[in-house]
């Protein structure tokens, strides 16, 4: 069913109670049938939850901290976006080496084979900072035609009517799955060593403390912001991003405090308490 959400150049449609952009609608069957490999690593998230950060971490863990190799190709080539028409499923099928695949798809749309085969990492970020980050992203992307202000955007987020929304169903469907390795964006800020150690263990890699420290350093916000292999500045030349903004925007916990109206903040609290079925303890950056 197609619905009229004033959001993107792509029409939005609803399926399984999720709101998905048009380019996904055409591929849902193909997604289901996609052949998963035993050694695939899938990095999954609701948009703006820290996906790129984790993609770079996983790439380095998988490639024995080969920093040079990590600069030789863009993050979207090293860790392709499954849902997006470019580079496309054919390209991902043809990758000969171990695949690190990014997707924002809700769990019910993943390939049928996913759970019995691949490793699955899910990133969660507190929903207030997600809202702020997503709002800015709609201004950065030329694919969005959202003209409203932050309050208009927040209203849509609260109604669940943003691409890949509702956020609470997206999160619930992943964090309740037994074999999914969950990472909190905020934990990457407060205890990166522990998070990366656990993540490496999940990936079957035993990294030395020094290597973990060098990964933390490499993946700091400032380093990544200035790293042309990950900072998506090339999207400006491709016309996908506007010139006056950056994918690496702020990268903090608690920026929502600069944006949210009190009653909207309470509405999100209500969502976390009542609509989100799993009890999750979010770090909102208030000490
Ligand atoms: P902000 O808009 O709050 O700055 P995704 O990769 O899922 O699209 O998420 C993007 C968000 O993660 C952005 O949030 C971005 O700045 C933040 N981010 C990306 N890399 C980061 C890093 N190394 N450290 C902290 N935040 C990072």
From TrEMBL:
Record bears the keyword Transmembrane helix: yes
GO function terms (MF aspect): sulfotransferase activity
Native organism: Brachionus koreanus
Family: Belongs to the sulfotransferase 1 family.
Keyword Cytoplasm on entry: no
Domain Sulfotransferase intervals: 38-277
Annotated keywords: Membrane, Transferase, Transmembrane, Transmembrane helix
Protein name (record): Sulfotransferase 1B1-like protein
Superkingdom as given in the UniProt entry: Eukaryota
């Amino acid at each position: 069913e197609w619905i009229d959400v004033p959001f993107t150049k792509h029409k939005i449609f609803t399926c399984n109670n999720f709101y998905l952009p048009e380019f996904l609608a055409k591929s849902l069957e193909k997604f289901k049938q996609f052949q998963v490999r035993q050694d695939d690593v899938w990095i999954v998230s609701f948009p703006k939850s820290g996906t790129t950060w984790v993609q770079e971490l996983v790439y380095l863990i998988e490639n024995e901290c080969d920093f040079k190799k990590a600069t030789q190709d863009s993050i979207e080539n090293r860790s392709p976006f499954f849902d997006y028409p470019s580079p496309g499923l054919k390209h991902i099928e043809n990758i000969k080496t171990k695949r690190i695949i990014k997707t924002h798809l809700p769990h019910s749309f993943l390939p049928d084979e996913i759970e019995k085969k691949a490793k699955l990492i899910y990133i969660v970020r507190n929903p207030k900072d997600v809202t702020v980050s997503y709002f800015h992203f709609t201004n950065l992307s030329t694919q969005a035609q959202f003209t409203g202000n932050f309050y208009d955007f927040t209203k849509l987020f609260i109604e669940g009517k943003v691409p890949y929304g509702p956020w609470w169903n997206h999160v619930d469907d992943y964090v309740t799955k037994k074999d999914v390795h969950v990472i909190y964006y905020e934990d990457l800020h407060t205890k990166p060593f522990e998070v990366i150690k656990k993540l490496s263990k999940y990936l079957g890699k035993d990294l030395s403390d020094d290597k973990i420290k060098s990964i933390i350093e490499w993946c700091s916000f400032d380093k990544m912001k200035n790293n042309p292999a990950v900072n998506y500045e090339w999207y400006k030349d491709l016309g996908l991003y506007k010139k006056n903004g950056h994918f690496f925007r702020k990268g903090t916990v608690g920026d929502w405090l600069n944006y949210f109206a009190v009653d909207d903040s309470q509405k999100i609290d209500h969502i976390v308490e009542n609509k989100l079925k799993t009890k999750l303890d979010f770090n909102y950056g208030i000490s």
